[in-house]
Amino acid sequence: MTTEPAAVIDAAPLGTTMRALVKETAAPGAAVREVPIPEPGPTELLVRIEAASVCGTDVHIERWDPWAQENFGPPPMIFGHEMAGTVVARGPGVTRIAVGETVAAETHFVDWTCYQCRTGRAHVCQNMRILGVHVPGTFAQYTVIPEVNAWAYEGIAPEIAALQEPLGNAVFAAFVEEVAGQTAMVTGCGPIGLMSIAVLKKAGARAVFATDLNPERMAMAERMGADLVLDARDDVVGRLRQETDGNGVDIVLEMSGSSDALHQGLAAVTNGGRVSLLGTHSVPATIDLSQEVIFKAIRIYGITGRRLWDTWYRTTALLEEGLDLTPIITHRLPLADYAHAFDLVASGHAGKIVLLPQEEQL
Amino acid sequence: MTTEPAAVIDAAPLGTTMRALVKETAAPGAAVREVPIPEPGPTELLVRIEAASVCGTDVHIERWDPWAQENFGPPPMIFGHEMAGTVVARGPGVTRIAVGETVAAETHFVDWTCYQCRTGRAHVCQNMRILGVHVPGTFAQYTVIPEVNAWAYEGIAPEIAALQEPLGNAVFAAFVEEVAGQTAMVTGCGPIGLMSIAVLKKAGARAVFATDLNPERMAMAERMGADLVLDARDDVVGRLRQETDGNGVDIVLEMSGSSDALHQGLAAVTNGGRVSLLGTHSVPATIDLSQEVIFKAIRIYGITGRRLWDTWYRTTALLEEGLDLTPIITHRLPLADYAHAFDLVASGHAGKIVLLPQEEQL
Amino acid sequence: MTTEPAAVIDAAPLGTTMRALVKETAAPGAAVREVPIPEPGPTELLVRIEAASVCGTDVHIERWDPWAQENFGPPPMIFGHEMAGTVVARGPGVTRIAVGETVAAETHFVDWTCYQCRTGRAHVCQNMRILGVHVPGTFAQYTVIPEVNAWAYEGIAPEIAALQEPLGNAVFAAFVEEVAGQTAMVTGCGPIGLMSIAVLKKAGARAVFATDLNPERMAMAERMGADLVLDARDDVVGRLRQETDGNGVDIVLEMSGSSDALHQGLAAVTNGGRVSLLGTHSVPATIDLSQEVIFKAIRIYGITGRRLWDTWYRTTALLEEGLDLTPIITHRLPLADYAHAFDLVASGHAGKIVLLPQEEQL
Amino acid sequence: MTTEPAAVIDAAPLGTTMRALVKETAAPGAAVREVPIPEPGPTELLVRIEAASVCGTDVHIERWDPWAQENFGPPPMIFGHEMAGTVVARGPGVTRIAVGETVAAETHFVDWTCYQCRTGRAHVCQNMRILGVHVPGTFAQYTVIPEVNAWAYEGIAPEIAALQEPLGNAVFAAFVEEVAGQTAMVTGCGPIGLMSIAVLKKAGARAVFATDLNPERMAMAERMGADLVLDARDDVVGRLRQETDGNGVDIVLEMSGSSDALHQGLAAVTNGGRVSLLGTHSVPATIDLSQEVIFKAIRIYGITGRRLWDTWYRTTALLEEGLDLTPIITHRLPLADYAHAFDLVASGHAGKIVLLPQEEQL
Questions:
Q1: A/B interface, count of CB pairs below 8 Å
Q2: A107 counts as catalytic
Q3: I want to staple B80 with a disulfide (CB 3.0 to 4.6 A). Which of A121, B137, B350, C140 is the partner?
Q4: Strand, coil or helix: what is B72?
């Protein structure tokens, strides 16, 4: 690494301004504003954002719910974190990524020195900062990320490349243990649940069963390759026992954050099977540990983030091998339509929505 | 295997009677009775019981709590399951174990043909029957067990040999992942918790921290080798953070069945650490899955029984290497003193109690 | 299990004779003979063979090479082991499999009582007997197998069902560690190598590279889905480095038994990667352990048989999910054409050959 | 990280000279010279060496054998790599380690950006540089290491602290799979073999068997806690079968680099067991892969370096828990006695030799 004292920019739109979606105050709402284009630090990249997809977290921030109040900012700050774009400038200490390369962002900025980071678990770094939550985000024409957080990609459309971050969640949740030849249940067909269906099928799962309450999402689950999609209000457990010779499913991926879904998963999983928890639970769950966990001898994995960088390598590989996320993307909107985008996500009448910061409002 | 139609007994006290502790009716209580000595089936062993230790389950059965009402029997039936003794007769299809050998019992009788049994998870067989719960047990001078459930041992005192079954629980809970060089917390210093302290130390744990509310048990935890024993009412989490450079513990073994202890364990475990649940929870636990499990990316293992037979091999090995359980045994009583034994267990003023069925009342 | 003294046959062609391929003497050759139909023991099944595929081992036996001289028989004995058929009779102790069910055979008969069998490694039982090698085999109209070795299947053509046994080898070799999103090299495109290509693709491998010297096999490798098939005489290692961004492959499956192929695999595997050895080496290999194994920190797995029964479950699952073995089957022949079949296998001008014992010579 | 342009030294003996053992030319030999004290770069530490132990590698360098000719230097360069000392100055980008802290060195300097480094396998980085082999080493009064390679320790004597690096080799080799309750064989009682005996015992191995040809080393193996030490010329395999109920050992750690020892290990390991290879083989080994590896279904692990940083955490923990390496240290010598030290190592009449660079010749 060089030790030049100041950032040397190879090429850049610096000094000018950009459009960005800013959380301006500690209250509901947000606004598109013209703000200065940020300058990369010594080991950072300036990236022109070509696609920035919307995560449920972004809606929490816009709506300013208790989680956002406790974790975000402080305002005013740009939010958004899922992204893909092109490097347009870099600090003097950057060595691996060149200007002109296309990159997605690992959105968890970790310290690389804590116990977790030094033992292969950087995804639960003790000093984590998250892009678009603790540091300025990606609902903007440009953003700055550390070089170490940039994942260079080639030959992927920006809207798909931006989805690598949530796809990585699905990959991590699915691949904590082997998948090939196993039966799996996905509870909750939001975007990450939908992606996980495709991941499981690509990895040779014997059968993938999906549940949800929303007919639009259930239809998407079928398009993503689920062998059977069930309304969670039906006798899901009975049906899955039937489909699995009475054994129950080998794998449960809990993607809904719903206690009801969790209990269905715990009832449906075979003795000695495994459950990945990824859906965020906003209220505590009441679990009969003896009957639902201990006497069934199951393994439960808390899943957050992505394994650095194993998950990214495998995510890229699955895309290369033809894993298709396009059925999930239901809307592509300019930044100015953010309010519509957030309403759609909140309503459940959308799959994945991609904001296109370089496009003017239609 | 031979196909001789009837049990050929090599040597035996058959045709006579024995003393046994019988759960006579579907109500609290039990009674020592003279009953016929059972006859082994074609692939079964008749064992003269030299030691039968008391498990919390036995107290549930004697007190006839809801769990017992739902699971036991039906009465009248002998109960008890932890045991060690000498084979005195065997069925004609028995090939591996000889008359005169000393054996302990794997108390889970499994079908060896279900999905779990055929994929290395016989401890969660779909058609499990448990000795002393579903079939006649070991609080008796003699009992019958399948040959396949007999674990032959040599050079171990009967009272220790009987403890191999619960020790196996502790070994299984501790060894689901590696132990050497890791910090561990044991919540709950009942007999299995106490055993797990010794197991962890024997396996090279960096430090073992134990919690309980009962001063007698806390004193026993120290005798079993715990590096630090804490009153669960104190600031356990703060103290353990301090003891672990702020990282939290790598391993939690939840041995109490208490929600409070579980929450302390989930708070104390390091990000990306692992938790084994073995203590039976009689009421559901309310868990903040997002904060306690998902964002910490921990792994939770439901633990029941013992892995057949890996756990038994490793349990034997630890005893051979000098793991000492004698500090746990606080009482050795004849069968007739069963009521005193159960009262002691229920009161918490005992470690492990061993009944000696061959001894007359003192 | 019942204890009736004699085998009770539910239905059967007993007492009559059948055609079978018999290794008659300790010398090259074999002969089709009329022999008595065998009678199942108490816990055995009599199976009418509908397909019996030819393994390289069978050729060794027919040719009477040193391995056969040391391991087979003794003659006279029927050989052959890969098979699928219908249960036509069963012993009185049989409980799980009914007459009329279709079954394939796990060809390794294990004792279920040795250290390996009791610790999840029955595939390396210390007292293994192999069907068609140590006990009479399956190149016959009927054979007898232990019930415990029968794998019931439904909805699979007999010629494919017979291939489940070698397919299990491929599945075991591939699945000792995770496959999805990883690059893999298969050295040797004999039948098991070809199957492993399909297995790896089905399990989401990022890319599968295959090598061989035989153009017919190389063409079959492409039909099985290999991304790239290379002549082993070319610069395989250089090409694979190129195909993997200079990293080398994550997985090597050595299926040839050739030292040259092994060295290519060890050179091509990425640092910290893994190598499964399945191809039988008839002569010792000379390995630079420091450079090829230690300084690369690779893991080498010796693979034999199939994991009981995990491998069978996963093998069945892959077939259900559409894994297609038909491109491998190049010949279907009546028993009488055995000599032609063995010549074809020995010549390398065949994929898999299936003998059809119920068919008269054409 | 700060971006100050030049190294700011907190405290230091810079500008003066130090004694160092220098490999001066591409020929056998070395010499103690007065050389300038090196200056730490922006992210580096200057360490005053208090103990520098001698590794076999150092002897290869001094003797200038083919391996050294191919890998070292180029001369003139200081060699030596195992060390412990006190930080006396640091570059301006150093953030974690303070002047005054005591540190040992992870001697493998990796790039943190290659495929291996980004997937948890930095110990086989594609661009590894080794302290004392590719960059100036530690047989000197001072040395410079990257901050990221410094392992801070407290409360350990320098001579033991220096041994953490080779101890880490032993820990890594032993802990690639679980140890507690398993039987183990260590072939070769050089320093790392001796350490691994203590590691295995500390981690609860059921029994540790050691082999060597050298009576002095065999005596040390007993002092390190081996349950049985055998002369490798005796019937080792027969004896170990006897000691393990005929099963063979679960674990083999090959620490000798001898083909004969390897074959004994492969013969002694139980079916389905595991073998760690760490001893460097100077000539290729001839292995009957079918009989020694495949049909036994064993796993072979190439071991090099230490897992970053899991191995270091566990190594520290074992020392804290009382693992005692002092019986291994047979000589403590000033730098000037280097020739005597190397002769002793080459002769096999030494355990571990520690050079003390701050001491004048006696």
A1: 131
A2: no
A3: B137
A4: coil
